[in-house]
Amino acid sequence: MFFLSDSTGISAETMGNALLIQFPYLRFDRRLIPFITSVDEARKVVAILDAAMDGEVTPLAFATAAVEEIRTELHTSRCPIIDFFDMHMTRVEAILDAKGERVASQLHGVGDIKRYNARMAAVEYAIEHDDGQSLRALGKADVILVAPSRCGKTPTTMYLALQHGLLVANYPLVEEDLEQTVLPRPIRALRDRCFGITTTPARLRQVRQERRPHSTYASLEQCTWELRRAEALFSTHDLPTINSSAKSVEEMSTVILQRLAANA
User: Fold this and answer.
1) Whether the Cβ atoms of residue 102 and residue 89 lie closer than 8 Å to each other
2) pTM of the prediction?
3) Distance CA 133, CA 183 (A)
4) What is the chain's alpha carbon radius of gyration, rounded to the nearest angstrom?
5) pLDDT tens, 77-87?
6) Which of 42, 117, 203, 215 could form a disulfide with 245 if both were Cys (CB 3.0 to 4.6 A apart)?
7) What are 192-242's pLDDT values in tens digits?
8) Distance (Å, whole) CA 116 – CA 119
9) CA separation for the pair 170, 141 (Å, rounded)
10) Calpha distance 144→166 (Å, rounded)
11) DSSP 3-state helix, strand, coil percentages of the chain (rounded to 5)?
12) Are 153 and 147 a contacting pair, CB within 8 Å?
């Protein structure tokens, strides 16, 4: 699978993988080819695609190139290409009865500068407040993710910050916290912003083994105890809870966003 773009390729990867995930029984070798900014570079990519066509398996390419000349050159390849830009842009132009500029920077640019700045500020906030590193301005958080170590707090925090511009802090539950029935003091007054994250003992053990193999921290007994105590804490304080073993970061973020919208 090839992901082709005249910019970073994030859009091509995101949309392409959204389709490929529907085929969990197939294994894909993925290759990103970003920054195809000239016709000459497009020709080199065509050569790569055509060479792949001579292999044992038929390749497939997902493209989001916006510049007409580059797109035209890419389509000279024998490789099948799913052209997201052409598929969607043509329809949008028809509906709006207007011609789009079809310039790469327009597709991948900053766009709404206020939204961009808000997302960058949110990322800085998330980094500062990752894993309870800082309690400064904790009261400004839109969401506080609470969980034992390695349950998936940080990836979800960063996704919500980068994609949605939310101020997200995450707070690790340590043994001292789990031995009590009250919420940790720093988040006690912010209960209405807290989301508990849990997982399965087996999954938590697997993740912790990668970090500290054969340690008490990674033992099944320790993982089971921490999760049981965390779930009891969440239940006692009626915190909404998400099981990270059964959901992707995107799905967890969607659940959180829906809950925030319902409480707004």
Assistant:
1) yes
2) 0.67
3) 18
4) 23
5) 999 999 988 88
6) 203
7) 999 999 999 999 999 999 999 999 999 999 999 999 999 999 999 999 999
8) 5
9) 10
10) 11
11) 55, 10, 35
12) yes
Start-to-end CA distance of the chain, whole Å, equals 42
Closest of 113, 118, 107, 127 to residue 9, by C-alpha:
107
Task: Detail the DSSP E strand segments found in the chain.
Answer: 2-4, 31-33, 61-63, 81-83, 143-148, 168-173, 194-198, 241-243
User: Residue written as tokens 């992901």?
Assistant: 3
Beta pairing class for 61-63 and 143-148: unpaired
Look up residue 129 and give its DSSP letter. Answer: T
Q: What's the chain's length in residues?
A: 264
pLDDT for res 104: 60
- To which residue do tokens 């973020």 refer? 253
Hey, what are 255's tokens?
């659940």
Distances in Å between the Cα of 218 and the Cα atoms of 39, 92, 96, 185, 201 are 53, 52, 57, 26, 10
Tokens representing residue 152 in the block: 């998936």
Residue 71 in tokens: 């797109």
CA distance 231 to 248: 20
Matching residue, tokens 């959901």: 247
Please check whether residue 146 is in contact with residue 196, taking contact to mean a CB–CB distance below 8 angstroms.
Answer: yes
Token pair in block for residue 73: 């050159």
